[in-house]
Design brief:
The chain has about 300 residues and is of the alpha/beta class. The protein is built from twelve helices and eight strands. The protein is elongated. The mean pLDDT is about 85.
């Protein structure tokens, strides 16, 4: 099997709030640190990476260098669709197209159109070779939407591609479909909190990928895992201490112990399904900064 960081495209998805952007950025840092020219792509009006690097918000659609071999790109699906239709329409003015009722109707009615053009842009990045006039990338890390939306986005070549049979649109959909289905070029990674709901969503993502693309998850990152500091016997022993202060500490230890046990049960649940599971420890800080992300990247480096 081709290693994850040796693929051209790595799709990172998962339940909202699980830390997808954190893990995608950490993987970008890791790959760039190994000398791979890497771009982390966000979809929607987010541009969180530029803010993380204390940069002004980048223009949507513009590739921005963050540091060394690490770049970022924020794709605005509405703007991407407009530019795509303008390219297909030749000399039609972008302003005219944007204000036309035809464009608004098409954008609202065409199934998967915005998702498809976003994937076309990502496909172009993944297929662009280094050494040419327009520099390419060794790895494209897609910080995909939450699982349900991500599956719809990944399925867009099949959804939208069922409309045209020939022509440039059909060619674009086939290129994207071929990239997403190729295990040598594209990898899929889910990020999950160590909770029952998040792990259930991972199982749904696995099923959705198999049904829609004939693929599965290459790995699952369990993010925010608490360490198991105490055994059950140690916690019970502490709870029997006569000192009130010690008993208060024992109550806190019990709460952490029970939560960590629940999290590790969910970890075992994934492993029983034979997933390749990577873990990221809980970060004891109020807000993740670049130093924390570099620490996560170093942790993942031992496993990727």
């Amino acid at each position: 099997m081709t290693p994850l960081l040796a693929r051209r495209l790595l799709v990172v998805t998962g339940k909202g709030g699980a830390g997808k952007t954190t893990v995608a950025t950490a993987i970008g840092l890791l790959a760039a640190g190994r000398g791979q020219r890497t771009i982390v792509v966000e979809v929607g009006h987010q541009d969180r990476l530029s803010l993380l690097y204390s940069r002004a918000a980048a223009n949507p659609g513009r590739e921005t260098r963050l540091q060394g071999d690490l770049w970022s790109l924020s794709i605005d699906p509405d703007r991407a669709l407009l530019e795509w239709l303008q390219a297909l329409g030749g000399r039609i003015s972008g302003r005219l197209l944007a204000t036309s009722s035809t464009f608004r109707y098409f954008a609202a009615a065409a199934p998967g159109a915005k998702e498809l053009v976003s994937m076309v842009k990502i496909c172009e990045l993944a297929e662009r070779e280094r050494g040419r006039a327009s520099a390419g990338y060794d790895l494209v890390v897609l910080d995909a939407p939450a699982t349900g939306h991500a599956l719809g986005m990944l399925e867009s070549p099949m959804t939208f591609g069922s409309i045209p049979r020939v022509g440039p649109v059909a060619a674009h959909t086939e290129r994207v479909r071929a990239l997403l289905a190729d295990p040598a070029r594209t990898g899929y990674l889910a990020v999950a909190a160590p909770s029952q709901t998040a792990v259930t969503e991972v199982l749904e993502a696995q099923r959705g990928l198999h049904e829609r693309l004939g693929r599965g998850l290459d790995a699952v990152v369990v993010n925010g895992l608490l360490p198991r500091r105490f055994s059950e016997g140690e916690v019970r022993q502490a709870e029997e201490l006569p000192d009130p202060v010690a008993r208060s500490a024992a109550q806190a230890a019990r709460a952490v112990h029970d939560r960590a046990r629940s999290q590790h049960n969910q970890l075992a649940r994934l492993k029983r399904r034979r997933f390749t599971v990577l873990t990221v420890p809980f970060q004891f800080c109020a807000e993740l900064d670049l130093d924390a992300l570099r620490g996560i990247a170093d942790h993942l480096a031992r496993k990727l």
